[in-house]
Structure formats: structure tokens, C-alpha cells
From TrEMBL:
<dbReference type="InterPro" id="IPR011013">
    <property type="entry name" value="Gal_mutarotase_sf_dom"/>
</dbReference>
<protein>
    <submittedName>
        <fullName>Glycoside hydrolase family 31 protein</fullName>
    </submittedName>
</protein>
<dbReference type="Pfam" id="PF17137">
    <property type="entry name" value="DUF5110"/>
</dbReference>
<comment type="similarity">
    <text>Belongs to the glycosyl hydrolase 31 family.</text>
</comment>
<dbReference type="InterPro" id="IPR033403">
    <property type="entry name" value="DUF5110"/>
</dbReference>
<dbReference type="InterPro" id="IPR013780">
    <property type="entry name" value="Glyco_hydro_b"/>
</dbReference>
<feature type="signal peptide">
    <location>
        <begin position="1"/>
        <end position="24"/>
    </location>
</feature>
<dbReference type="GO" id="GO:0004553">
    <property type="term" value="F:hydrolase activity, hydrolyzing O-glycosyl compounds"/>
</dbReference>
<feature type="domain" description="Glycoside hydrolase family 31 TIM barrel">
    <location>
        <begin position="226"/>
        <end position="541"/>
    </location>
</feature>
<dbReference type="InterPro" id="IPR000322">
    <property type="entry name" value="Glyco_hydro_31_TIM"/>
</dbReference>
<dbReference type="InterPro" id="IPR048395">
    <property type="entry name" value="Glyco_hydro_31_C"/>
</dbReference>
<dbReference type="GO" id="GO:0005975">
    <property type="term" value="P:carbohydrate metabolic process"/>
</dbReference>
<dbReference type="InterPro" id="IPR017853">
    <property type="entry name" value="GH"/>
</dbReference>
<keyword id="KW-0378">Hydrolase</keyword>
<dbReference type="GO" id="GO:0030246">
    <property type="term" value="F:carbohydrate binding"/>
</dbReference>
<feature type="domain" description="Glycosyl hydrolase family 31 C-terminal">
    <location>
        <begin position="550"/>
        <end position="635"/>
    </location>
</feature>
<feature type="domain" description="DUF5110">
    <location>
        <begin position="652"/>
        <end position="708"/>
    </location>
</feature>
């Protein structure tokens, strides 16, 4: 075994030690980012396929913080089994991240195996987006740059040490199974990382000085956060899988006649001649004139998003050109494209451009790119880990990277055409921050869905807690409120004939047995959807802060308040942008407890002034969003529109909370292209003083998106 112990100050890029053919080095590739390399680095890692270069200029703007240990204290060893890492863990330190975790939030004391899986359960780490990445409330983050299945022991295991034979260790009697096997973490410890089969490794350390800055540094090093097309922040509605062209147009007419805002219509599998596996060819029996249909939908202010997965049917025109560019095992009886290979990605993308983008399609739902459920022996739809691909990558690594590479393939298609989008995907990995893509799941536990909003923000991910059927209208409203207060407001009716608010029960819905009070239900949903549309200017600016500064638009309270012990395990509240705190309801609750961190807050619905550091009781209301506003905020709320178009202008009412002397900002551009990267954008300053709002624009964008028509001061 070749064991390396680092002995270098972390602030210097220094070659440390060489033994045999392996060498260990520490470099600083960007401000406050440290890269540790040991052994023979594998050819295919998440960083190999990063979409954007690190935003060096934005990284330079961040203050460099201290890491609470010396990088010389990180131990790496390589032996015949693989690679092992020990990273210091301080007393009282709290760990978060590992991608889109399900069933756990604070990861202290847990064994985490961030492995891609299509139906995540329990708290082991199986997930749609497995990132070998964690962040500490002490102000740093760690990324282990590997696509191997990796295990993290988060302070729960200790190496053996010689003990004095006379040491008095008191015997303890446990009186329950739970107490007997409970994991306890106390004192200083280590995070142990086990990467079986690896002959070398790269470790990235992202410094703070605080938790938020460490996350910003990771996102900016990945190239900055995603900035979706503005229309993507509206409501997305996916229609029933067997809807035909006329059914879709009728559904859209319903939304427009009822003034229920919808901006994106999603088509499910039957738009293709074959779906499992995919043909990527329009089914003319269902869609006789796709281009005409898309044009009609566009005229009504709607974008079109198509469902697909990447596995290629023998009925597809892609089958022959991809046959020799795919793995030696299939998934859903279709070819598995070797997306590691750029020519393969180009062939796949060209077909999409020529056949789908050419008729006006503006986005895709990329399904089934994770893996068969590893917890079940009968789940066998995906390719096995022993699969070999022409590029040389193996099945294990391909599983971990497949969703990331799929995103890269489709996103580049839009980027090359200077067209922004907002996509859906079921799998992702590290360095995905720049992709305008929301993750989704076939799981449907609402409490977990809320927790996943908080978890996604740690790792440069966006999560969509989609709404399908429910057990009651109350549950449907709770889910709808969560969706409206998330990165993507998605209603997925792929197996429902009618919108779920007309009948929440799946069976009755498909039999046409609609609720007697459906009109009242419509009004509740209309109110929630209109609130979402009112929030678009604020959300759009939050996403620009993500793109330019790496600040997650949705993030757990621990990120902003890392020293507050009351938020260490608080996963069902989260920040939206700089100033909003959301506390969604779940279950059948009539009330819930809401903890507000230090400072002064306001109840969004009542304007009641509340002192932070305390817990309050909030009552559930069908048509009111569970929101709180931080003092000294200017909250711009738009007059709601039914959809966002290229020329939409927003009339704003600015709510000024607190002293009345504060300022805020909006981001203004065309909302649909990448021209903002070349300076065609404005930063709009909103400054409250002397009882009114002063508006100042700085930038080269010639049009106006925002007009302030009213100001309300709330003290």
C-alpha cells in the first residue's frame, strides 16, 4: 500500500511527495479552491464533462476564508482495494449535501452511498442525483471527483487505537433495539471515504469563510448557476400520455378561457411512434401536423416540452448510426448511446434539431436516465454495471454520469442556437450547476419533496416537487403551494384525463366523475398560480444571482444561518432568493410550527411584524402562501399575466418592509437568449427613500421589462 499523508500549507500549490509511480500535489486552480491529486487519476470523472469553464472573475470577488483544518491533515491511501480518504471533522460540525438526498438532511453520523437509483428510499444515499460532495456549517465544502460508487462514513467510524488496560470504561445497558444500534458522533472525528477500484483520486476543497460562500465557490467553479428562460419560471402542465393533437388544443383552450396561468405544455410518451424504447419520431396518427400544432400553441403563449428517454428503438432513424456507438447491453430493449463520445452526442442532437426543434419544440423531459431500483431484485430495466462502451467507460461510471451527459447533449443543442430553455431530468451529478434543468421523481412523499428543495440547494441542483393526484383537495392544495414555492411549478397529469383540481382521485378523474365544487377549487388554484406569476420578477433576479454569484435561489436555512443550532435539522423551511422564507404544509395539518431565525420578519399575508429567534404557529389557508419576508426588503410583485412572452412587461407593486430606507435589484434582459452574457442586460436598482421608489437602470438592454406603478410601505 502506498500511503500518503499531506504535509503542506493549504495556501500553496506545492508538489508534496512521490512514491513509485504515484505523486500527490496540492494546487489552487481558482481563488479559494484547492485541488488535491493522488495516484493515477481515472479518465472519466464528473469534471471531465463540465459544461462551462470556472467563472474566475466572479471567484475573485469572493473573500478567501480559512478552512477549519490544515489540508495537511487530509490522509489519502491507495491499495489493491482502491482509494481511501480521511478528512477531519470538528466537534459539533454539521454536514449536508451528497446531491439530491431523500430521507435525510443533516448527514452527521450516517453512512452515505450517493449512487444513482430510480426510486430512492431510506437514508443510505441512493438518489437521482448522487454527488460525492458535502458542505459543512463551519464554512467549507469537499468534492471527491469520481464517477465510481463511493461510500462516505460521516464521522461514525473510528480507527483502532491502543488503550490503557487500566482505562475504566463503564458498562451501559441498552433497553431498546433503537438505542442499542444508535449512531453517536462526539468529539473530533473524520469523514472516511471509500472508493473501491480507484487507483487515484482528485479532491476539491472549497473554502468559505462561511457555508454560503463555500457553496457559491463550488457553483462558480462549475461555471455559475443556471439561468432558465423566463417563461420557464411560469407554470408547466403535462397532459395525459394518450392525448392527441386535438385533446391538447382543447386543454389549452380551457386554461385560457378560465384564466388559469400556464406557460408550458408537456407532451408525454405517445407523441412518438415508439416510446419504450424511443423512436424520436412523431406519431402522425396522434399528431398529424406537429408544426401547425406547435405554432397554434405558441400563438396562445405556450411553449412545448417533449418527454423522451435516451434508449433508441430499432424503429428510430438513430438506430443504425448509433448501433456501433452504444453499449454492449441494452435498456428497455433499446440502444444505450455512448454519450461520453462527442460524435455520438452530436448525432443524437442533430436528429433533435432537424426533427423537433425545427417545428418549434422548446424543451425536453429526459426520463429514465438513472438506474433500475437497486433495492429490488426484479428491477432490471436498465443496463448492467458490467456493460462496456466504445469510449472505454464502464457501466458503473456510465450510470453515475449518464444523466449529466444527457443534459449536456440536449442543453448544447439549445445553446448553439442562442436559445435558452428549461429542461426536466431524472438524474444528475457534480458540475451540473449551469444546466437549466429541474430534477423530478416517481416517488411522491410530500414531506420528502419539501426536504428535497432544501437538499438540492447544497449541491448546485434544482428540484421540482411535481403535483399529480392526491387523497383530498386539501392535500392537493398543500402540494400546489409547495410547487408554486419551488424552482419549477410543475403539474404532471400524465395519467389524468382532467386537471387534478377538478377531481383529485385518479380513478374518478379518468371516469369523468368531476367534483361538485370544482369551480371553487379552480378559484383556489387560479389564486395560487397567479401568485407564482406575480413572483416572477423576484424569482428571475434570484436565478441571475445564482448564475452570476453562485447563490442558490432555493436553499436551507442552515446556509444563511450556520451558527443557529435550531436550524441544524430544520429541513421543511427554506429561503427563496435573498429575502423570502417558505414554510410549506404537508400531511393533514391545520397548523404548523415555524421557526424564524434572528432578525425581524413579516408575515406575508397579514404584515404582522415578528421577532426572529422564536417559533410561531401558522394556520393553513387554502389560498394563502406560507411565506415570511425579511425586514429591509423591497419585494416587487407583478400584476399577474396568463403567460410570459418575449415582449411581456411587468407592472410592479413594490412592498417595502422595515425602515423604508433600503434598496433591491432586478435583472432585465430579453429572457430567451444568451445575449445577456455579451452585455445586453440591465441591472435595475430599486431604492426606497422619502416615501417612494427610485428606479435606476444600468446596462445595454434597450427595452423595459419592469414598470413600478405602486409602492406600499410596511413598518
Amino acid at each position: 500500500m502506498n500511503r500518503i499523508v499531506f504535509s503542506v500549507l493549504f495556501c500553496l500549490p506545492v508538489l508534496l511527495l512521490k512514491m513509485g509511480f504515484a505523486q500527490t500535489s496540492v494546487k489552487e486552480p481558482a481563488n479559494g479552491v484547492y485541488k488535491i491529486s493522488e495516484g493515477v487519476i481515472e479518465k472519466y470523472t464528473p469534471e471531465c464533462f463540465r459544461e462551462e469553464k470556472a467563472d474566475i472573475n466572479a471567484l475573485k470577488q469572493l473573500s478567501k476564508g480559512n478552512i477549519p483544518f490544515n489540508i495537511s491533515d487530509i490522509n489519502v491511501s491507495v491499495d489493491s482495494r482502491g482509494c481511501k480518504i480521511a478528512i477531519p471533522l470538528g466537534e459539533g460540525e454539521q454536514l449536508y449535501g451528497f446531491g439530491l438526498q431523500v430521507g435525510s438532511f443533516n448527514q452527521n453520523g450516517l453512512r452515505k452511498m450517493p449512487i444513482v437509483n430510480d426510486y430512492p428510499l431510506n437514508n443510505l444515499g441512493y438518489t437521482h442525483a448522487p454527488l460525492p460532495f458535502y458542505v459543512s456549517n463551519k464554512g467549507y465544502a469537499i468534492l471527491v471527483n469520481t464517477s465510481r460508487y463511493t461510500t462516505f462514513y460521516c464521522g461514525s467510524n473510528q480507527p483502532k487505537r491502543k488503550q490503557n488496560i487500566d482505562t475504566d470504561i463503564p458498562a451501559e445497558t441498552k433497553l431498546s433495539v433503537e438505542e442499542l444500534y444508535q449512531t453517536k458522533v462526539s468529539g473530533r472525528n473524520n469523514v472516511l471515504v471509500d472508493i473501491k477500484g480507484a487507483k487515484g483520486i482528485e479532491i476539491y476543497v472549497f473554502s468559505g469563510p462561511d457555508m454560503l460562500t463555500a457553496i457559491q465557490r463550488y457553483n462558480l467553479f462549475a461555471g455559475g448557476g443556471a439561468l432558465p428562460a423566463m417563461w420557464g419560471l411560469g407554470i408547466k402542465y403535462r397532459v395525459k400520455a394518450d392525448f392527441k393533437q386535438t385533446d391538447i388544443l382543447n386543454a389549452v383552450d380551457y386554461f385560457r378561457e378560465k384564466h388559469i396561468p400556464v406557460n408550458v405544455i408537456g407532451l408525454e410518451p405517445h407523441w412518438q411512434t415508439a416510446a419504450y424504447p424511443c423512436s424520436f419520431v412523431w406519431d402522425k396518427a396522434f399528431f398529424p401536423n406537429p408544426k401547425e400544432m406547435v405554432s397554434q400553441l405558441n400563438a396562445k403563449g405556450l411553449q412545448v416540452n417533449l418527454w423522451e428517454h435516451a434508449f433508441v428503438s430499432n424503429q428510430s432513424p438513430l438506430y443504425k448510426p448509433l448501433y456501433d456507438r452504444s453499449g454492449d447491453y441494452m435498456a428497455f430493449h433499446g440502444l444505450v448511446p455512448d454519450f461520453v463520445d462527442k460524435p455520438t452526442r452530436d448525432i443524437f442532437a442533430k436528429h433533435h434539431k432537424d426533427s423537433l426543434l425545427s417545428v418549434g419544440v422548446s424543451g425536453f423531459k429526459m426520463d429514465e436516465c438513472d438506474n433500475s431500483d437497486l433495492s429490488r431484485g426484479d428491477a432490471r430495466w436498465s443496463f448492467p454495471e458490467m456493460t462496456k462502451f466504445p469510449s472505454g467507460i464502464d457501466g458503473e461510471q456510465m450510470h453515475q454520469l449518464f444523466g449529466l451527459l444527457y443534459q449536456k447533449t440536449i442543453y448544447n443543442l439549445f445553446k448553439e442556437g442562442n436559445q435558452r430553455t428549461y429542461l426536466d431530468v431524472r438524474s444528475s451529478n457534480a458540475f451540473a450547476s449551469p444546466y437549466p434543468v429541474a430534477l423530478y421523481s416517481d416517488t411522491y412523499d410530500h414531506k420528502q419533496y419539501i426536504e428535497m428543495i432544501s437538499n438540492a440547494g447544497f449541491s448546485g441542483l434544482l428540484w421540482s416537487p411535481e403535483v399529480r393526484e392526491s387523497n383530498s383537495f386539501k392535500e392537493l392544495v398543500m402540494r400546489s403551494q409547495t410547487a408554486v414555492l419551488s424552482a419549477q411549478a410543475l403539474f404532471n397529469s400524465w395519467y389524468l384525463q382532467y386537471p387534478p383540481w377538478l377531481q383529485f382521485d385518479k380513478g374518478k378523474n379518468n371516469r369523468g366523475e368531476l367534483l361538485e365544487d370544482k369551480e371553487a377549487n379552480e378559484q383556489v388554484i387560479r389564486t395560487l398560480f397567479k401568485f407564482r406569476m406575480s413572483l416572477i420578477p423576484y424569482l428571475y433576479n434570484a436565478f441571475y444571482q445564482y448564475q452570476s454569484k453562485g447563490i442558490p435561489p432555493f436553499r436551507a436555512l442552515i446556509v444563511d444561518y450556520p451558527e443557529d443550532e435550531k436550524v441544524f435539522n430544520l429541513s421543511d423551511e427554506y429561503m427563496i432568493g435573498e429575502s423570502l422564507l417558505a414554510a410549506p404544509f404537508s400531511g393533514n395539518a391545520e397548523t404548523r410550527k415555524v421557526y424564524l431565525p434572528k432578525g425581524v420578519w413579516y408575515n406575508f399575508n397579514t404584515n404582522e411584524k415578528l421577532i426572529g429567534g422564536k417559533e410561531y404557529t401558522l394556520k393553513f389557508e387554502y389560498d394563502k402562501l406560507p411565506l415570511f419576508v425579511k425586514a429591509e426588503t423591497i419585494l416587487p410583485m407583478a400584476r399577474p399575466v396568463d403567460f410570459i412572452s418575449n415582449d411581456t412587461q411587468f407592472d410592479l407593486t413594490c412592498y417595502v418592509y422595515g425602515s423604508g430606507k433600503t434598496k433591491s435589484y432586478l435583472f432585465e434582459d430579453d429572457g430567451t437568449t444568451f445575449d445577456y452574457l455579451n452585455g445586453k442586460m440591465n441591472i435595475v436598482e430599486l431604492r426606497a427613500e422619502n416615501g417612494k421608489i427610485m428606479v435606476t437602470r444600468n446596462g445595454k438592454f434597450k427595452s423595459k421589462r419592469f414598470n413600478v406603478i405602486k409602492t406600499i410601505f410596511i413598518k
